Amino acid sequence: MDRRKSAADYDDFVRRVYYQTLPGPRRRSRYGSLHDSAEERLRKTESEKDSLSLHVSVLTDQIDAQSEKIRDLEYSLAERHDKVINTEDMLQSEDMSTALLKKPTEIHYL
Predict the structure, then answer these.
(1) Cβ(18)–Cβ(38) under 8 Å?
(2) How many CB atoms within 10 Å of residue 15?
(3) What segment(s) does the record annotate as region Disordered (predicted)?
(4) Residue 105 is assigned to a structural domain of this protein
(5) Is the full-model pTM beyond 0.70?
(6) Three-state SS across the chain?
(7) Which residue range is the domain that position 84 belongs to?
(8) Is 73 within 8 Å of 41 (Cβ atoms)?
């Protein structure tokens, strides 16, 4: 919504600037080609703006998709990290159990 509002504000700004640079009503007929070229420049600028807006929209969608993929990958990485930690803990526990079993038992005679 903000992007649309700022685009509308930009449209109004461009129109005001171009119309302020146009000659007044009495001089328009005398400088018709200047008026026509200014209107053509305005149309071209608006067309370029629309094209850029579309391009920005496509890029924004791509960024959103890539951001979502990054979040998914980070979540997956965190899950795998937790599994590695748990596996290491289990192996360490297993090693300790094995070491205790291999340790010669001491028999104490009284």
Answers:
(1) yes
(2) 13
(3) 25-47
(4) no
(5) no
(6) CHHHHHHHHHHHHHHHHHHHHCCCHHHHCCCHHHHHHHHHHHHHHHHHHHHHHHHHHHHHHHHHHHHHHHHHHHHHHHHHHHHHHHHHHHHHHHHHHHHHHHCCCCCCCC
(7) 2-99
(8) no
In the chain, what is the greatest distance between 2 CA atoms, to the nearest angstrom? Answer: 127
Q: Which two tokens stand for residue 61?
A: 């969608």
Scored b (16 or more CB within 10 A) or e, 22-54 reads eeeeeeeeeeeeeeeebeeebeeeeeeeeeeee
Count: domains in the chain? 1
Question: Rounded to a whole number, what is the distance in angstroms from the first to the last CA of the chain?
Answer: 88
Token pair of 21 as six digits: 């640079």
Question: pLDDT tens for residues 37-85?
Answer: 878 888 899 999 999 999 999 999 999 999 999 999 999 999 999 999 9
φ/ψ of 103, rounded to 5, equals -70, 130
